[in-house]
Amino acid sequence: MTLIEAASATITLPALKEEQAQKFVLTLSCREQAGIVQAVATFLFERGFNIDEHQQFDDSLRETLHLRTAFSGSPGYTPAMLEEEFAGIASRFDMKFSFHDQIPKRVLVMVSKFGHCLNDLIFRWRGGSLGGELVAVVSNHETHRAMAEAAGLPFIYVPVTPGTKAEAERQLLELVDEYEADLVVLARYMQVLSDDLCRALEGRAINIHHSFLPGFKGARPYHQAYDRGVKLVGATAHYVTADLDEGPIIEQEVIRVDHTYGPAQLSHVGQDAEALALSRAVRWHCQHRVLRDQTSTVVFR
Questions:
Q1: For 2, which of 17, 61, 64, 117 is 20 to 30 Å away at the CA?
Q2: Can you point out the beta strands (E) in the chain?
Q3: Locate the Formyl transferase N-terminal domain: which residues (predicted)?
Q4: Measuring CA to CA, which residue among 86, 68, 94, 130 is closest to residue 276?
Q5: Nearest-10 Cα torsion for 120, 126, 130, 136
Q6: Taking Cα atoms as reference points, which of 207, 214, 201, 221 lies closest to residue 263?
Q7: Measured in Å, how far apart are the chain's first and last C-alpha atoms?
Q8: For 248, which DSSP code?
């Protein structure tokens, strides 16, 4: 073997090992009790897995434990196989748990006339930092067709009126199934979803709100903020529920302002906050870093 061949071998061998290793994430929640981490570690060790990342939160107030463990190795396993083999441990500790593979989550984005969040999601997706795979854009306006199609995304126009709302929501659910979307992102989609649609998408739909909830609801939020002389502009990314803008919060972003900011400047700053909060929420959800806990969330960053 020549020196060049030897150098090539030392470079490519680790890459081959990396490709062969399967990567998974385990998330679980249960009542605090002794032996949980040991049981998880032993389970993974006995099957030849290495723990790549481990985070847990012991909530002493609610007496619950939340855990996220990323691990790799042992070709041939699937999440379903792992869940079946883990069932005995889960039953012993009364766990709510899931195993996840590394297949990117498929994300369908909904948008109306404001395009800053959509533009940011596309930018991060194309740069490989979003954590999920954008698959389509749905809108009740034609405003951002060019933006979506320039990124190579299907753009589906679904107009909504009071008389067609039920049909539009039925069509949306069909699109979710057609594009096999794991997550629906309301990137400033300015339509209130029905209770039935919220329930159908529970746990797999994220919304962005232009304030720290529940402040400045309704129309012209940045004019309301200006009238109140705000010193902080914020945004809240949360899961969609039937309770309007009151779903479990995933992320909030804040930017300091002062009396010199008029409504237009506040809007520009607010759009930055919205884009940041939403992209983080989408990435953390796609990486299985968000665990629902009643009306709140645990986020392992």
A1: 17
A2: 22-31, 49-59, 64-73, 96-101, 105-111, 132-139, 155-157, 183-186, 205-209, 232-239, 249-256, 290-293, 296-299
A3: 105-282
A4: 130
A5: 80
A6: 221
A7: 46
A8: P
Q: Output the six-digit token pair for 116.
A: 């800053």
- Between CA 235 and CA 279 the distance in angstroms is 12
**Contact criterion met (CB below 8 Å) for 125 and 99:** no
Query: Residue 5 phi/psi, 5° resolution?
Result: -65, -40
Question: What tokens appear for 154 in the block?
Answer: 């299907």
CA 237, 206, 108, 155 dihedral sign is negative
Output the pTM of the full model. 0.89
pLDDT in tens, the chain (301 residues): 333 343 333 333 344 344 568 999 999 999 999 999 999 999 999 999 999 999 999 999 899 999 999 999 978 999 999 999 999 999 999 999 999 999 999 999 999 999 999 999 999 999 999 999 999 999 999 999 999 999 999 999 999 999 999 999 999 999 999 999 999 999 999 999 999 999 999 999 999 998 764 567 777 888 888 888 888 888 999 999 988 778 999 999 999 999 999 999 999 999 999 999 999 999 999 999 999 998 899 999 9
73 near 21, Cβ under 8 Å?
A: yes
* Alpha helices (H) along 94-137: 116-127
DSSP state of 12: H
Residue 194: both structure tokens together:
């029905």
Q: Is 258 a catalytic residue?
A: no
The one-character DSSP state at 41 is H
Contact at 8 Å (CB) between 110 and 184? yes
At residue 292's C-alpha, the angle toward residues 71 and 203, to 5°, is 100
- By three-state DSSP, how is residue 229 classified? coil
